[in-house]
Write a structure and sequence with these properties.
heterodimer; A: 311 residues; mainly alpha; B: 252 residues; alpha/beta; Rossmann fold; 6-stranded mixed sheet; 8 helices; 25% strand
């Protein structure tokens, strides 16, 4: 690139002197003034202020979600199609024997409900994370990132806001499932499942953020569907118990077992039945921490700008 | 007498996207209580500078200070002293005006009744007190800008950054927004960095930085820049400095 010759290579030395846009920068860089000379120095934030910020971010997301009826409906349609069409068709084909946490034979609809709950969260987490990464120079992410709170906190708050929305979706789904006689053994199951949903939602959100930061090809949602959501969903215990998978192929069994989605589903399944799947809890918590830390480290707004338009 | 640091200090800032140099050793300051214009064509590096000042990108070469707080090292302290109005609309259209403001207050750790009080006061000041509970979608473009300015001032910063704030507005709304911000400078002593490619937004007494292809070509009051480039007005001065022909008031 050639620059046109600047008519005034060293422009207006006199114009600067004493004028309000000061060009003198002699002391800049090492001009750290004693903090006493800086105005209104308030160092850091109190825990209460962190709570206010988190609450504000989550509250806004929930409010926006409730205003977007179409988004709400479309988020519900997907699992309901699975429940009413897929499960109804497959209940004859797939028998599910008694496996923990179930204490009796269960209908196939009952079996896949935790998997569908996790699927709602997986879709939602991927969707909101993708927009966090690809809209980072746009309005809402920029407004968020210009907040003085630490960036890790802002990103985590935003992830939790996405989790809150996915939890609302899951409960809306559960209301409809309840009309279909799919319910936990006691109503306490609805409460017990909440912590599991929060942890699973956070894991999917963090994973989505990490993947979209690292892999440029995931720029659109179709890519995420094909390369993340479908493989994770099908190679898991969402649709069929793992002992059945083991019968058909040991290698697939190991893939399913290594899949974080399987553990999120099992965590939700057990919690819905007021039990704790300790191994799944440990795996989910572990993956969540790793994804979260990596996602925050990988989040670099300058990278996106450079990759997409180079200017 | 006083050695209080300026509202904004940009020192030897360079930034590149791969091989393309977007900013090349840019240095200038905005004094407290001044209306300063950052004038440049589209692609001059204004948006990049904006992204650096607001910590969207990390500053790799040079330093940026807001009231003496380094944006890279003390970003929290720096960011709480600055209000920002982005070029793109950043309001949530389906939320009410006051909900938008309360959300912003939360992002600065201000909640509850204090947030509501500030939101109401800010709308009062923007002349939009009657619209607090309207859906933002129902506001005009100029009113949305006013809300965004009110929002940027909610946490009581002493420096306001505006990135091409009049883009997309009609002539009347443009004039109103400009007058509103100038009024804030005159009456409340706010420092303002106003980014634009529209030459007719510059007054002779304004502090001006002309940015062209990542370099600062002139820094000073508009009057001084006009005088030293031997031009009749700031538009002509801009043409002489950049070698770019401009047509009817806009430079981009």
């Amino acid at each position: 690139m050639t620059l046109p010759p600047a008519p005034h290579p060293n422009p207006l030395p006199d114009a600067n002197r004493g004028f309000p846009v000061c060009a003198s920068d002699a002391e800049v860089g090492n001009s750290r003034l004693p903090s006493g000379e800086r105005e209104n120095v308030r160092d850091g934030f109190t825990a209460r202020q962190y709570a206010i910020c988190l609450h504000g971010v989550v509250w806004r997301e929930a409010l926006r979600f409730l205003h977007q009826r179409e988004r709400f409906v479309s988020a519900l349609v997907r699992p309901l199609v699975w429940l009413f069409i897929f499960a109804a068709g497959f209940r004859q084909v797939l028998g599910v024997s008694i496996i923990p946490p179930y204490e009796t034979y269960v209908l196939y609809e009952v079996y896949i409900t935790p998997g569908l709950m996790a699927m709602i969260q997986l879709f939602n987490g991927m969707q909101s994370s993708l927009s966090m990464v690809y809209d980072r120079e746009m309005g809402n992410m920029r407004t968020l990132l210009v907040s003085p709170f630490p960036r890790w906190f802002l990103l985590a708050a935003k992830l939790l806001a996405g989790v809150a929305v996915s939890v609302l979706q899951v409960y809306a789904y559960l209301v409809i499932a309840w009309l279909w006689d799919i319910e936990p053994p006691t109503p306490a199951g609805y409460v017990a499942v909440l912590p599991a949903l929060i942890l699973a939602g956070l894991m999917f959100g963090a994973l989505g953020m990490l993947l979209s930061s690292l892999i440029r090809q995931l720029e659109n949602f179709a890519g995420v569907m094909n390369f993340v959501i479908f493989p994770m969903f099908f190679a898991s215990s969402a649709l069929y118990p793992l002992w059945r998978v083991k019968e058909s192929g040991p290698w697939l069994y190991w893939v399913c077992l290594a899949n974080p989605f399987t553990h999120a589903v099992e965590l939700i399944r057990f919690a819905f039945h007021q039990k704790i799947a300790w191994d799944s809890l440990a795996v989910t918590a572990g993956f969540t921490s790793v994804f979260l830390i990596a996602a925050i480290l990988a989040y670099d707004p300058a990278k996106g700008m450079f990759m997409r338009k180079g200017g | 007498m006083t050695h209080a640091p300026p509202a904004l200090r940009i020192a030897h800032v360079s930034h590149s996207y791969g091989a393309r140099q977007a900013l090349d050793d840019v240095s200038f300051c905005v004094e407290r209580g001044r209306f300063a214009v950052l004038l440049g064509l589209n692609g001059a590096g204004k948006s990049t500078l904006f992204a650096l000042v607001t910590r969207l990108y990390a500053t790799r070469d040079g330093a940026i200070e807001i009231f003496g707080c380094d944006v890279a090292r003390e970003s929290s302290e720096a960011l709480r002293r600055v209000g920002v109005v982005f070029q793109a609309r950043t309001l949530d259209l389906e939320l009410s005006v006051v909900q938008n403001l309360v959300y912003h207050a939360a992002l600065h750790g201000v909640g509850g009744t204090e947030a509501k009080r500030r939101a109401e006061a800010a709308l009062q000041r923007a002349g939009l007190a009657g619209r607090a509970h309207d859906k933002t979608r129902n506001l005009s473009g100029g009113q949305m800008r006013r809300v965004e300015i009110a929002r940027a001032l909610l946490h009581e910063p002493r420096l306001l950054l505006l990135d091409e704030p009049t883009v997309g507005l009609d002539i009347k709304a443009r004039a109103e927004i400009l007058a509103h911000v100038r009024d804030l400078v005159d009456r409340e002593g706010l420092a303002v960095l106003w980014t634009t490619h529209l030459i007719d937004e510059v007054k002779e007494s304004d502090a001006v930085v002309i940015l062209h292809e990542g370099k600062t070509l002139a820094i000073g009051t508009a009057a001084a820049i006009i005088a030293s480039s031997g031009a009749q007005n700031i538009g002509e001065a801009f043409e002489r400095l950049t070698g770019v022909e401009t047509a009817n008031g806009g430079v981009g």
